[in-house]
């Protein structure tokens, strides 16, 4: 079992905890959840690389996103390995509404676009971390240990994103944008959802 990670900053950052109904549904469809997890890791790496390509003059961003992209791709490889060991084919699954629901409210022009993108990235990483911790006690020991092993890097990723946002804009402005995206995120997590995905809402019965 990986060393314990203090999740207090993550819990305090998020607007709500994962509903128990999501945990129950997720445990019941682990193959689909693992495929979606692999997709999430791949998309996280792609997002980091996209930021590196767009903002080449921001050295702090380049360094943090380079490390983040490498870690996310490593996690992607680890998920694929676990799937292969369990006979789970890497099939196509639809994306949840979660990430797009957050990104729909991102400003279209810089510098506000970058700040919003970083705030959204922080929320996604924090939610991922919280869900790994929520799932770990309810799955088999191998998968649970894997989820726990991801907590340290995922919690650091959320801090990297919000630190970068605060370096670009006054803290009050970042907090104002964060309040907006927290409200959206809470709605996505607590409202009924037709699909069970890693960042989906409460399963519609």
TrEMBL record:
Q: Which domain of life is it from?
A: Bacteria
Q: What Gene3D superfamilies does this protein map onto? A: 1.20.1260.10
InterPro entries recorded for this chain? Ferritin-like, Ferritin-like_SF, tRNA-Hydrxlase_MiaE
Q: PANTHER family of this UniProt entry?
A: TRNA 2-(METHYLSULFANYL)-N(6)-ISOPENTENYLADENOSINE(37) HYDROXYLASE (PTHR42637:SF1), TRNA-(MS[2]IO[6]A)-HYDROXYLASE (PTHR42637)
- UniProt name for this protein: tRNA-(Ms[2]io[6]A)-hydroxylase
